[in-house]
Amino acid sequence: MGLFRGFPLISCSGALSRIILRAALIVTACCSAEAASNNAVALNSVLELFTSQGCSSCPPADALLATLARKPDVIAVSFAVDYWDYIGWKDTLAAPAFAARQKAYAAAHGEQHVYTPEIVVNGLAGVVGSDRQEIEEAVRASKGREGALTLPMRLSHSNGAIVIEVGEGEGGPAEVVALRVVRSKVVHIGRGENAGRSVTYTNVVRAIDKLGDWTGSTATFRLPETGEEGEGYVVLLQKGPLEKPGVILGAAKTAGL
After folding, report:
1. Which first-to-last residue range defines the signal peptide (predicted)?
2. What is the model's pTM?
């Protein structure tokens, strides 16, 4: 497991009608042929893996994430970090914003260091990314905690855009955050701890952007379609700003992720 110490914590960049609307969101998410994601299965966890091509402990975590991502009640994504680039191989999928997100989580959780591989569960806790038992225990511990995954969200297609509908609920204010994701990426690593290996990365985050704020009322946001085969979006409803992310109140994904 790669451990990176001494980092500077850096910033990333009435009532009846509401009931009817909430019911409509649920029914439409389950039944509409136009839905971009299948929300019929209740979401159990959002898993964010922080990984590096320069970390020899990471390939087992990358493989485990691919397995977990196939579960219908899981949203799983991987962020490539760049703080191991100095040891001999520059990660081809990394961006400073991804390491900044991990460091922001560490600060929010009171941690003094970051490491790879790490999985953050529902925005609440970080665990070793290759330890399935520890991940499952963290998922169980997060159930209902601080409103984790209690808010309804739905994605649909409309006129070349993805429409994000967030239901009414408690826990606001929160931010609506879009992750642009590549479904799968195979990388041949030429140097460093994984020299000579080809590693498959699953649901690789390529960009992270704030779409807007949610205050507790029903709200709608829009994204342009990616236009690229094999790409999609994961959308998070998350407490706290990007520089201090908190619990994930709701999440949804486009089909195929």
Report:
1. 1-35
2. 0.86
Q: Tell me: the pLDDT tens digits for 147-181? A: 999 999 999 999 999 999 999 998 889 999 999 99
CA nearest to 252, candidates 172, 181, 200: 181
Strands 174-188, 161-166: pairing is unpaired
Enumerate long-range contacts of 35-41, CB under 8 Å, 24 or more apart.
Answer: 35/154, 35/155, 35/156, 36/155, 36/156, 36/157, 36/162, 36/254, 36/255, 37/154, 37/155, 37/252, 37/253, 37/254, 37/255, 37/257, 38/72, 38/255, 39/153, 39/154, 39/252, 41/72, 41/73
Q: What is the pLDDT of residue 211?
A: 97
Rg of the chain taking only CA atoms, in angstroms: 18
Q: How far apart are CA 24 and CA 18, in angstroms?
A: 10
For residues 159 and 34, is the Cβ–Cβ distance under 8 A? Answer: no
Q: What is the pLDDT of residues 172-226, one digit of tens each?
A: 899 999 999 999 999 999 999 999 999 999 999 999 999 999 999 999 999 999 8
DSSP code for 35: B
- Rounded Cα–Cα distance for residues 36 and 97 (Å): 27
Report the C-alpha gap between 221 and 204 in whole angstroms: 23
Q: Which stretches of 124-216 are assigned E, i.e. beta strand?
A: 125-128, 153-158, 161-166, 174-188, 198-214
118, 128 in Cβ contact below 8 A?
yes
* Residue tagged 């931010």 (tokens): 175
**What gap in Å lies between CA 122 and CA 216, rounded to an integer?**
19
Residue 175's identity, in one-letter code, is: E
Hunting for tokens 């998410």 — which residue is that?
Answer: 29
Task: Tell the residue number behind the tokens 């701890």, with chain if given.
Answer: 193
Asked if 106 and 8 count as a contact pair (C-beta separation under 8 A), the reply is no
